[in-house]
Structure formats: structure tokens, C-alpha cells
Amino acid sequence: MTPYDRVPDQRPVPAGTGLTLEDALPAPEMAEAGGVPARPRLTRTVAEMRSALRELVAGAADDDASDAEPVTVGLVPTMGALHGGHAALVRRARAENDVVAVSIFVNPLQFGDPADLEHYPRTLDADLDLLAAAGADVVFAPDVQQMYPGYPDAPIVTVSAGRMGEVLEGDSRPGHFDGVATVVAKLWNIARPAVPVLRSYFGQKDAQQLTVLRRLATDLDIDVDVRAVPIVRSPEGLALSSRNTRLDAAGLEHALVLSRALRGLADAAVAGEPVDVQAARRMVEDEPGVELDHLVVVDRDTFAELGPELLCQPLRRDALALVAAHVPPVRLIDNMVLPAAQD
């Protein structure tokens, strides 16, 4: 049994979740890692992280002194409780960069519900095993006082996500995207002085967050290349999420309705048929144990909701279907691209 076979309350992870270390990493990678790969360097303070990055960058430069290209660093911000989706981010960063850094920090600024913050899984030992096998070089795992000295009376100055942070997920979770933007801006600014080229990796599952962070980098002139990685799903289709560990077997089964509803919309779009959002909503609402928050189709760039006049005909450009629902005791999100009809 690997450390990731258990969740924080010591219940076994239900089968089929894609949340074990073996699920997260394909068999060839586990074999190459020898089962017990060396863990990445663990840093706890900003000074330690910057020092480690400078050392790793210098080492990478020395290893390839003949290469005129600058050393690149791939940063993967996370809140821990890592799963196959996170492993995909790290593998992508490993393939595209000389140095791979991962942050693990449960950010209180992005939680509106204190209970959700309290119960968010914290599995650092298991996370380090997964990151070792996935190829991370260094991990930044600060405590809240390191990130926000004086918390909860700090920080005083934060980042606003603007209009993008007030719709859909932002409407359901006021202040959430302000908290995300603030912590990610800090992480980028912690890493940036120590690295020549910074790339930052995020999952497409959090589609609205991804769009907010791209605008953050653009609007505030932060020198970072934001890169997206496709959603990783369990064999049954459930989008992997750290919150899935809090679902029992029945909850995992009920949660599959989210991806089924989105897949129906995507299939209609591919076929050049009207996109019936109301039918998709009814599908989710009729599922026992699931309370729908929202299911909408939006413009991929602006997140403006597309109205019936656009959805009653073949899509003229790619759109994005978004769903959020409560599956006790957690709230889950998912999304799927709806491709434009082919001429």
C-alpha cells in the first residue's frame, strides 16, 4: 500500500477514483522510478525557495553550458492533496523545462467557508512521493504566516480579479478569485527574481481560474508564461479533484452525472446540432444526491453566457460548457469544450 492509498481521515480511497499513486503515474514511470524515487527538495520559507531555485538554475546552466537558451523553470502552484491531475501538470512541466518547482499551500484567502478550509485534505508526505515520481525538483510548502505575515490581520493589500471574478464561480464563491489571484501573484513574484524564464502550469478543470490568471499576468505585466493542461478524468469520466476524497462510493457514482451532462452537450456540438442546456440541467437535477448550482455555456475568452438565440443553431465558434454542483459534503466543478460546427 502506498501512502496515497489513504485519505486524511484514514478511510481507504474508493476504487476507480484515479487518486492512488499508481493511478496518478503510468506503470512505465513507476518502473523507471524504481518504486522509491528521491523526494524533491522541501523548502518552507521564501528565502529557502529562492536559494534553492538559484542553485537549481545554476546547476542546469552548468549541465548544458553549450546551450545558448536561458534556463527555464516550470512552476506548478497547488494546494496539496495531489492526484493524477496534478501529476499531469508536473509531467508537462518536466517535459518542457530544465527545473520543475511545485508549491503546496492551502490558501485561506480563497475559501469562503471556514469548514471547507478546515477539512481540505492535507497529505504532504503522500504529495512528496507523487511529486518525486512525477519529476519535481523542489517543493515550496510554507505555512500561513510565511505567506501572509500577521494573518488573519494581513494581507492588507490584495489583488482583485475584477469583473471576471464576480460571475459564475465568483458569484457562487464571493472573493474566491481575489484570493486565488493574490496567492498566485505572490508565488510568481517569489520565483521570478531567481529564474531567467518562468512558466506556470494550471489545469483546464478550473477554467475560469485559468482565464483569470492569464489576465492577471497580462494586465499586471508579470513576466510569466501561463500554460494549460487538459483535464484528467477517472476511467468513468469524473474530473479528478482533491475534494473527491471526501465522497463515499455513492457520491462518486452520483457525481458522474456532471461529466455525462457535459458530454451530451459536446456530442451535440460536434454533430452540428442545437445545444440543449435545459436538458443537460434537468439531467443533473434529476440525479439523486446532487444539487445543481449552475450549468451554462459561455464564450471561452470572456465567460459571457451564450443565450438561446446562439445555442439553438450550430455553434459558429468554440464555446465552453461549465457545471458546478453540490455532492455532499463537497462542491464539484467540471467543464468541457463545445467545438464549433464544421462546415
TrEMBL record:
Record's keyword annotation contains Transcription regulation: no
Keyword Ribosomal protein: no
Matches recorded under InterPro entries: Pantoate_ligase, Pantoate_ligase_C, Rossmann-like_a/b/a_fold
Positions of beta-alanine binding: Q110
Catalytic residues identified in the record: H86
Cross-referenced SUPFAM superfamilies: Nucleotidylyl transferase
Pathways involved: Cofactor biosynthesis; (R)-pantothenate biosynthesis; (R)-pantothenate from (R)-pantoate and beta-alanine: step 1/1
Pfam families recorded: Pantoate_ligase
Domain of life: Bacteria
Sites where the protein binds (R)-pantoate: Q110, Q209
GO molecular function, one term: pantoate-beta-alanine ligase activity
Annotated keywords: ATP-binding, Cytoplasm, Ligase, Nucleotide-binding, Pantothenate biosynthesis
Cellular location(s): Cytoplasm
Major localisation: cytoplasm
The reaction(s) this protein catalyses: (R)-pantoate + beta-alanine + ATP = (R)-pantothenate + AMP + diphosphate + H(+)
Residues that hold ATP according to the record: 79-86, 203-206, 232, 240-243
Family matches, as Gene3D superfamilies: HUPs (3.40.50.620), Pantoate-beta-alanine ligase, C-terminal domain (3.30.1300.10)
E.C. no: 6.3.2.1
Similarity section: Belongs to the pantothenate synthetase family.
HAMAP family on file: PanC (MF_00158)
Subunit structure: Homodimer.
Other notes: The reaction proceeds by a bi uni uni bi ping pong mechanism.
Job description of the protein: Catalyzes the condensation of pantoate with beta-alanine in an ATP-dependent reaction via a pantoyl-adenylate intermediate.
The protein's name in its UniProt record: Pantothenate synthetase
Provenance organism: Micrococcus lylae
Gene assigned in the entry: panC
